[in-house]
Design the sequence.
């Protein structure tokens, strides 16, 4: 076969096709402006996507309908507002039914159900690491978790820790694939069918900064301000904050079931689906029964007889498509939907039937979570490398192997709540730390210490996906081969003397041997994106502390992956 | 045979066997979503009747009953991404449910003549 070079015209045609494809690819996810239009017309994200699909697709051919002037055909999949039952109930039917019920209690329940439905991120499936690693000063974590955020997380923590370097820290963590998706305007949780994506998905980066550490700058004076001031004061010390690099870490999750990128997870998902088929059937049966009561045959016939409303929607929709006016399209549908919802709610016991349908859908949601829970209930393991360079300590390389097991439990299909222990996680770390460099004549060797630690996390309250509080109990053991080394920079006084050091120096602190720490922690989940960790810990080593050996810590952690819909993909 | 699409319900000859397929909504060309379960019509005790879901979860088959009956289809996906899918037959689209939080529900009304 002969291959011919493409003509410029052919190249232009290909470019046009690519442009059209790009526009179509961009079409399914509403832009910020389109989302705002949908919100203006009381359409949730699910319906907004369907509206957008109808607006840009040729299924049906709205423009043909507009040109023909025949408004009854073709039919649109949006005509049957229950075609997306879940969206219709959560967006229009449920709230309207609650309004009709006129009880504030029911309104509150509906609002809470809606909030719960909106809060979902894959990171919620496991207890993830948001704050700093155990070796960072001020960290509230005694154990590194195998999983971190799907996009970016921030954590600010304050207190003491296992090391001699105390202080406050700021930790930024990011997932390599999450960042790549963000940079390419791809939804964070959308699967990319690429082997490269599968490889970089488990790669995470962490940077920890020491913040708010007291520091002083020597500043030359330019003269005396009054006659009582000695003229010999040539310089003064000005207090300043010192935000400095503490550590950088790269981690690779060797096995993480709960990720749509993972082929292993997809296999587990299929297996879990089969084992839960009976529960899914039961939940679907409940939805079908509720639907039969809400929309019996005579009501469906009445809806079908509402031709003026259907024709008005088709006319306005076709005109909007012809004018490329998405706002007018959404407005036309909102008017049509409102009339159909009113018809449905005019049926006997409609309010109670809508609430029953909503409850049945929630039960189905819980059943799908059972499938998820079973698919993810596998051991996790992560290998990570950490380069630490805390201000007063020599730089170190740390190698961590983290292994975790998630307990499945059995969630209640009606409430989504788990049995005691559902979602609990047991994590163990093995860490080895070596010094980055060893000066000539040093009194210590390359190997700094060996560490082992374990933590048990127990979610309590709320649902398994969104517990109110996660309680943790952790133990940490570290064997340090030689005393801790502290750097003293030039210009400081040598300890116990009035001698100013002419160059950098190192001192040893009597901290060799075993260090043991136990910790109790509660992470209060204010929302899916915001949590507050509170920790108290006890250590067997107190020689470096000025106060009691029981310490409290707190922090503030944000997981931005839960906000991915807000920051991804505007077109 | 094929279902004749309508605004509120699809229609067909009573007794005809019809298959409705699940496919990705363009521009997507593939989907991880599948049909979890489906029920169509009711028996003598007003209990919904299970519909036949294909082993791959990509289609559901029914035998059309007399009168207007609902076909409730539940959908699941391993992906937490919000995704719109198409339920249809041939070139006809009957519904475009959106899967949110791994699950979606669609109801089609089918009139047997």
Sequence:
């Amino acid at each position: 076969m002969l291959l011919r070079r493409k003509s410029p015209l052919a190249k232009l045609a290909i470019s046009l096709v690519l442009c059209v494809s790009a526009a179509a690819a961009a079409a399914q996810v509403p832009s910020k402006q389109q989302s705002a239009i949908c919100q203006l017309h009381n359409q949730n994200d699910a319906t907004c996507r369907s509206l957008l699909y109808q607006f840009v697709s040729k299924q049906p051919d709205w423009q043909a309908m507009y040109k023909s002037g025949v408004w009854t055909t073709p039919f649109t999949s949006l005509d049957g507002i229950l075609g997306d039952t879940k969206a219709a109930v959560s967006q229009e039917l449920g709230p309207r039914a609650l309004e009709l019920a006129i009880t504030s209690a029911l309104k509150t329940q509906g609002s809470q159900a809606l909030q719960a439905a909106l809060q979902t991120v894959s990171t919620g499936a496991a207890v993830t690491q948001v704050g700093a690693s155990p070796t960072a000063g001020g960290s509230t974590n005694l154990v590194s978790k195998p999983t971190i955020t799907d996009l970016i997380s921030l954590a600010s923590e304050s207190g003491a820790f296992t090391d001699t370097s105390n202080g406050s820290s700021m930790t930024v963590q990011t997932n390599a694939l999450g960042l790549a998706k963000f940079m390419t305007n791809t939804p964070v949780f959308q699967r990319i069918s690429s082997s490269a994506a599968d490889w970089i998905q488990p790669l995470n980066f962490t940077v920890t900064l020491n913040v708010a550490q007291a520091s002083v700058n020597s500043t030359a004076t330019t003269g005396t301000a009054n006659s009582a001031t000695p003229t010999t004061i040539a310089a003064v010390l000005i207090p300043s904050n010192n935000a400095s690099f503490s550590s950088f870490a790269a981690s690779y999750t060797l096995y993480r079931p709960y990720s749509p990128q993972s082929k292993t997870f997809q296999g587990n998902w299929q297996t879990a689906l089969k084992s839960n088929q009976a529960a899914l059937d039961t939940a679907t049966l409940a939805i079908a029964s509720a639907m039969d009561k809400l929309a019996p045959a005579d009501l469906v016939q009445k809806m079908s007889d509402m031709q003026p409303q259907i024709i008005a929607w088709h006319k306005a929709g076709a005109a909007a498509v012809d004018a490329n006016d998405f706002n007018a399209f959404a407005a036309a549908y909102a008017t049509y939907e409102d009339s159909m919802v009113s018809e449905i709610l005019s049926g006997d016991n409609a309010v109670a039937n809508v609430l029953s349908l909503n409850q049945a859908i929630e039960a189905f949601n819980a059943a799908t979570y059972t499938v998820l829970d079973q698919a993810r209930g596998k051991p996790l393991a992560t290998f990570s490398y950490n380069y630490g360079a805390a201000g007063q300590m020599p730089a170190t390389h740390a190698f961590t192997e983290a292994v975790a097991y998630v307990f499945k439990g059995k969630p209640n299909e009606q409430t989504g709540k788990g049995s005691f222990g559902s979602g609990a996680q047991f994590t163990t770390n093995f860490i080895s730390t070596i010094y980055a460099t060893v000066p000539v004549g040093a009194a210590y060797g390359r190997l700094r210490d060996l560490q082992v630690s374990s933590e048990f996390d127990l979610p309590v309250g709320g649902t398994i996906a969104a517990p109110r509080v996660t309680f943790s109990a952790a133990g940490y053991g570290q064997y340090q081969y030689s005393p801790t080394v502290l750097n003293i920079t030039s210009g400081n006084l040598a300890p116990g003397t009035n001698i100013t050091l002419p160059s950098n120096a190192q001192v040893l602190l009597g901290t060799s041997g075993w260090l043991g720490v136990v910790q109790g922690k509660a992470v209060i989940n204010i929302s899916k994106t915001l949590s507050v960790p509170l920790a108290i810990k006890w250590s067997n080593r107190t020689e470096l502390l000025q106060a009691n050996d029981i310490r409290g810590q707190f922090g503030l952690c944000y997981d931005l992956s839960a906000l991915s819909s807000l920051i991804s993909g505007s077109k | 045979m094929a279902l004749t699409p309508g605004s509120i319900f699809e229609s067909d000859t009573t007794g005809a066997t019809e298959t409705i397929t699940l496919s990705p909504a363009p521009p997507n060309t593939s989907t991880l979503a599948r049909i979890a379960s489906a029920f169509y019509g009711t028996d003598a005790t007003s209990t919904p009747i299970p519909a036949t879901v294909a082993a791959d979860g990509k289609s559901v088959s029914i035998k059309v009953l007399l009168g207007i009956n609902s076909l409730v289809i539940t959908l699941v996906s391993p992906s937490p991404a919000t995704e719109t899918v198409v339920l249809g037959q041939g070139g006809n689209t009957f519904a475009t449910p959106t899967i949110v939080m791994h699950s979606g529900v669609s109801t089609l009304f089918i009139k047997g003549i």
User: Anything to note?
Assistant: Chain B has a mean pLDDT of 90. Chain B touches chain A through 56 residues (CB under 8 Å). The radius of gyration of chain B is 14 Å.
